[in-house]
Amino acid sequence: MLFLLLILVYNPISLRLTTIGVAIYYGLNPVIFYRLIKTESSFRSFAISDAQAIGLGQIKESTAFYIHKEHKRGYLFLPLYNLKLAAKYLNYLKKRYNDNWSLTLAAYNWGESNVNRRISSHQIEKDKDYRHLFSDIPETYNYINKILYPKNKT
What we know:
- This protein is globular.
- The N and C termini lie far apart (45 Å).
- The protein has 154 residues and is mostly helical.
- The longest helix is centred in the middle third of the chain and has 18 residues, at 79-96.
- It has helices spanning 2-10, 12-25, 30-41, 61-67, 79-96, 101-110, 112-119, 138-148.
């Protein structure tokens, strides 16, 4: 029975469906959230980055504690828990950056502090595309483009 439960919880198809369900539950654009999770971990629940980001949403333990004060170490390997924290963090960033997706994604990838320094002289507009501000940071620029697609394709 436990084996069947593990197969269901960690099954790539179940993870994709759960990702969409979590996005809808947290009021996020399901397409963007799905692409974010695909980009972060390729739907691998046990993925660990060089920076020690864990799971589907590639969340660091420090970020998990920041989002959820009662976070317990090791829980980031649980798919639903990880997706929920990723969604909560994304909603926090969206609110912080006036619902602007390019800045929200830049902050998710490069960090809030880095993005804040980069945009300190800008007035944030909800629908403006700010990805050009990160063209000198290839990882972040490409990250935004993978999730939002290049400007000429949107």
